[in-house]
C-alpha cells in the first residue's frame, strides 16, 4: 500500500494543493522514508507484537502527513487532510473523526493516535529567564520539537520553514539547549553578504582536525549546525547561492575541497 498511496498522494498535491516552497517528488519520498525509518525503531516498535501491522500502518500515515503534507500552505492543508482521511479508510479505520490529520501523533504504547494537545507540557514561568528566551509550549512547539528529536539522532537533516516572526529560531534553539550531552552545537546566521568561504571557515574552525582529510566534533559527540535565515545569501551571476551550494555538498558528499591544496576534506558526525 505504500507504493500506491505515495503515487496517489504526490499526484493529488501537484494537482490540487499549493506548497510553501517548491519541492520535487523524489525529495518528498526521501523525506517520507527518513521519517518512517526514524520511527520504526526497537524503542518505538516491538517486532514481535502481534499487532505490529497496525502500528506500521499508523507510522506510515504519520510519515505521509509530515513529508508529503508538511510543505503545504495553510490554504490547502485542510483539503489534503480530508483527502487522506478518506483514503486511509482502506487500510486503517480507527483514525479520530474530529480534527485534521496534523493534530495527532502516534502513541506506540496505547497503539492509537493521540492529540498533540495532550502532549503539551504545563508552562512554568521562570523569572530568571530573559523575556526573549521564554518559550511557552504550544502544539506547534511540541510537534516541531518531536520532529527534530526523531530525525536528528538518526542522522537526518531538518529544514524548518515559516513566516517571519513565528518562532522558528526560538524552537530550534530550545531544542539545542536540551539536546543532551551527546551533542555539541553552533549557530550561524546567513545574510545577503554571506559567502561560501564564510561557511567553510565555520566548518574548519568549529570542527576538530582528525586527520589530514578528516574533520569532526570532539570524540563521542555529534555536531549540530544550526543555520538561521538559510535563504538570505545573495544570488550570484548564474542565479545560484554559493553558501547553500556548499551546504548541499557538505550534506550530500560529506565534505568539501581545500581551497589552497585542492584535496577533499571529509566531515563526519555533523
3D structure, described in words:
By secondary structure, the protein is of the alpha/beta class. It is 39% helix and 13% strand. It has helices at residues 2-16, 25-39, 52-65, 74-88, 139-151, 168-177, 196-206, 242-252, and strands at 104-107, 112-115, 183-189, 208-211, 214-216, 222-228, 255-257, 264-267. A four-stranded mixed sheet has the order 4-5-8-7. A two-stranded antiparallel sheet has the order 1-2. Helix 1 (2-16) runs antiparallel to helix 4 and helix 7 packs across helix 8. It is globular and about 60 Å long.
Question: Would you kindly provide a brief summary of this structure?
Answer:
With 270 residues, the chain is of the alpha/beta class. The protein has eight helices and eight strands; from the N terminus they run H-H-H-H-E-E-H-H-E-H-E-E-E-H-E-E.
Describe the largest sheet: 4 strands, mixed
Q: Structural class, from secondary structure content?
A: alpha/beta
Radius of gyration: 20 Å
- Backbone shape: globular
Trace the largest sheet across and list its strands.
4-5-8-7
Determine the mean pLDDT. 92
Order of helices and strands: HHHHEEHHEHEEEHEE
- The residue fraction in helices comes out at 25-40%
The total of beta strands comes to 8
Total number of helices: 8
Measured between the Cα atoms of the first and last residue, the distance is 34 Å
Low-confidence stretches: none
Strand content: 5-15%
